[in-house]
Amino acid sequence: MTIALEAIGTVATNHAANVNAVTAFQVGETYACRSICDYDCIYRFGILKRTAKSVWINVHGNTVRRAVRIFDGVEAIDPHGRYSMSPVLTADKQF
Fold first, then answer.
1. I need a surface site. Which of 18, 55, 77, 87 has the fewest CB within 10 A?
2. Over the stretch 42-73, which tens digit does the pLDDT of each residue have?
3. Which residues lie across from 74 on neighbouring strands?
4. Residue 22 to residue 8: CA distance in whole angstroms
5. What is the C-alpha separation between 50 and 52, in angstroms, rounded?
6. Edge-to-edge strand order for the sheet containing 30-34?
7. 8 A C-beta contact, residue 55 and residue 68
């Protein structure tokens, strides 16, 4: 019985270590995502500046701030704002 409890504790510890690992946006890097409506349409965005909760990108020639959220251990933003068919830019899709 003690062996089973130790094994469970090890699995829980390893899981906790993996949960804390987040793929983050890096300043100066370019990331890409595809349009939900047209697979051939690829949006590219460069990260200009960032804080712990926000990133700044260029959208149609304007610098805008977007809030960062974490989904499945990867940072994500909505470059054009949040609406039903909006593209989602994630930190694991580096261009």
1. 18
2. 999 999 999 999 999 999 999 999 999 999 99
3. 23, 71
4. 24
5. 7
6. 30-34, 42-50, 54-59, 62-67
7. yes
Which pTM was predicted?
0.76
C-alpha 42/C-alpha 26 separation (Å) is 20
Residue 4 token pair: 């089973």
3-state secondary structure of 63: strand
Tokens 């089973």 sit at which residue? 4
Q: Please identify which residue in the block is written with the tokens 């890096």.
A: 26
User: Concatenated DSSP letters for 14-58?
Assistant: HHHHHHT--B---TT-EEEEE-SS-TT-EEEEEEEEE-SSEEEEE
Which amino acid type is present at position 21?
A
